[in-house]
Write a structure and sequence with these properties.
The protein is mainly α and about 180 residues long. It has two domains: about 15-120, 50s Ribosomal Protein L17, Chain: A; about 150-184. Helix content is about 60%, strand content about 10%. Strand 2 and strand 3 form a beta hairpin. Helix 3 (about 60-70) crosses helix 4.
């Protein structure tokens, strides 16, 4: 009887299932994203996330424990060298499952499972949104808003007076020019 057997056997015996999950985990670590069925992706998620958590502590013991699961030197070195550094501040949830529809041949639900910190589409948006600069004044006397308004008012008064002085002179010149045209 199948009482309280909580994990998915994926239609395989124990040795085949562990070998398949080990190979899929290595592929996910090396390629950062793989295409698979939803059932395998969910099983892989529960298989690989504890390994990523274990890789945050770079010790001989944790390397040996991870190697016993993965059985791949390149995968272990990639995990401890690159991935562990990138997910150091993340408390969990290192993978993301994106459903892509059904497979043509057998109508199986397909998905992409990827490492969260390696998707450029999601990380670029958050980085560009945070990019704001502050402008600070260096040295000099600090002025209040009332003083600034007073300076602006003085400058506008001066420009208006200057324009008013020039306007009558311009009108006189225009009338003189018209009179000369009439004489000719």
């Amino acid at each position: 009887m199948r009482h309280n057997k909580s994990f998915n056997h994926l239609g395989r015996n124990a040795s085949h299932r562990s070998a398949m999950l080990s190979n899929m985990a290595t592929s996910l670590i090396l390629h950062k994203r793989i295409n698979t069925t939803v059932a395998k992706a969910k099983a892989l998620k529960s298989y690989v996330e504890p390994l990523i958590t274990k890789s945050k502590v770079d010790s001989t013991h944790s390397r040996r424990v991870v190697f016993s699961f993965l059985q791949n030197k390149e995968g272990v070195s990639e995990l401890f060298r690159d991935i562990a550094i990138k997910v150091a501040n993340r408390p969990g949830g290192y993978t993301r499952i994106l459903k892509t529809g059904n497979r043509q041949g057998d109508n199986a639900e397909m998905c992409i499972i990827e490492l969260v910190d390696y998707n450029e589409n999601y990380t670029q948006e958050s980085k560009s949104a945070k990019k704001t600069t502050t402008r600070k004044r260096r040295g000099g006397k600090k002025t209040t808003s009332a003083e600034t308004e007073a300076k602006v008012v003085e400058e506008t008064v001066k420009t208006v007076e200057a324009v008013a002085k020039e306007a009558p002179v311009a009108e006189v010149k225009e009338t003189e020019a018209k009179e000369e045209d009439k004489k000719e």
